[in-house]
Specification:
This protein is α+β, with helices and mostly antiparallel strands. The protein is 42% helix and 18% strand. It is built from eleven helices and 14 strands. The strands form four sheets. Strands 10-9-8-11-12 form a five-stranded mixed sheet. A four-stranded antiparallel sheet has the order 1-7-6-2. A three-stranded antiparallel sheet has the order 3-4-5, with no helix packed on it. A hairpin with a 5-residue loop joins strand 8 and strand 9. The structure holds zinc ion (ZN). Zinc ion binds next to loops.
Amino acid sequence: MVLTYRYRIKDATSGRHLRRQAREVNRVWNYCGDIHNAARRHNKRWPSGFDLIRLTSGSSKLLGLHSDTVQAVCKQFAISRDACGKRPRWRGRKSLGWVPFQASRAIRLQGDTVVFLGRRYRLWLSRPIDGRILCGSFAEDARGRWYLNLQVEVPQDSEHGIGEIGIDLGLKSLAALSTGEVIEAPRIYRKHEQALAVAQRAGRKSRVRAIHAKIAACRRHFLHELSTRLVRENRRIYIGNVNSSGLARTSLAKSVLDAGWSQLRFQVRYKAVRHGAEYIEVDERFSTQVCSACGVRGGPQGREGLVVREWSCSGCGARHDRDINSAINILFSGRNVGLQQTEIPVTSVGKTLNSISARLRVRASREPARLWRIAAGSDQVSPPAPRVPHAH
Ligand SMILES: [Zn+2]
């Protein structure tokens, strides 16, 4: 499977060279946008990534870029444009710096330095690169720090645990496990809230950015530790499919965003795929209402029921903690889902991900053949969705 490794670039002076390259990258990107607009003005088909590469060939030396960078920008332009169905955003002064390269031949790694375009960049080599590098990019974050991102094809290992676990993601605590453990959400945002407010009132933008970055880093670290532990201990992991984007619009928003459900789910999923464990998302409707001991539906319901933390079953009289009962129900229904798809091998999630990216690749490669024209005589551009090729 392919993972992205991210390394911080050490020396402060290298930012200057990368920033200059990033400006030229923006120039190539905006040139691609101009070509795209010109094609539309003259009712021609949208230029493909290959067309753009052909148009920009030979420019890399003039721009002071690596030729792999120019090609990667053209390709990414075509991919982004096809994904959103229109010309992507103009890259200007405010865009974060980005210098991609499309093959590992563009860089040379020597110990903790990377040589790119004849210049040495020192890295914090926080972990060894244990696989084949496919492509990558240099990227800037909101604080002006530069990172090297590498797409690395890593081998799969099968070091998963032997347990089986249901996880209920909640608001009060981050997660309840079917083993009876409750994992409290770290109140990272609330902890830094005051310092953030002070910095915001004082108008200290760099301080605000630093605090936000710290909050994000703390949360990511906590979730990484948790997800690694879950995959180490278990071979089947069932998680409720609670929809965080729906809840984020309600008044519960702040604690939902703090909880970072989707990040946890994403991490558990890719770690499970990598270690050969099974990750299954389960429909969690009624999981809080059904008694995990006898199956009677008598638990708390709806938004008002959220305040009920403990309840007794009317059928068998068992006393339940709301979230742990829900986690046990998720475990049960996850087993049922697992039984229904026994033919699907353990790495089913990885397969789906791969097939999605394969489908995207097919769509991208078909792009040159796609011909569509704007109806003659009307300035109104038809929406890109029904792109039916005209037969001539
Ligand atoms: Zn019961």
